[in-house]
Amino acid sequence: MREKFRQFMIGRYGTDGLNQFLSMSSIVMLLVSLLTRVSLFTWLGAALLILCYYRSLSRNISKRTEENYRFYSLKDRFNNKFRSLKEQWANRKLYHYYRCPQCRQKLRVPRGRGRIQISCPRCGTQFIKKS
Q1: Measured by CB atoms within 10 angstroms of the end CB, which terminus of the chain is less buried, N or C?
Q2: pTM score, two decimals?
Q3: Residue 21: which residues within 8 A CB-CB, separation 6 or more?
Q4: Is the pLDDT assigned to residue 34 strictly greater than 90?
Q5: Per-residue pLDDT reduced to its tens digit, 39-61
Q6: C-alpha distance from residue 96 to each of 91, 92, 116, 118 (Å)
């Protein structure tokens, strides 16, 4: 039986990070549907599970790899944003964070300096803020 399954999976994509995320999301949706008795969560969970199996059994490896790459780039962007917010929270007593009005670059200014002129290193715009 194990050999037949191995032969069946030859040339198929298998599992990756996106599939793991889809399967965990489907389990969460199905548990939420059990607790709330809302059929929408049941359908969403079933759809995510079907998508997960479709991706696992697919023979279009290049397309599945591209999808996984996009998932990881989105995940990294989300993690970097969260890490940045966590760092800002940890340094909230030492620094003020402002955005440049011209280019929207995030700037860090030390607290307790009074009203200061801030110069953006990216675009060179100068503006006055209280630190």
Answers
A1: N
A2: 0.69
A3: 71
A4: yes
A5: 999 999 999 999 999 998 888 88
A6: 9, 7, 12, 12
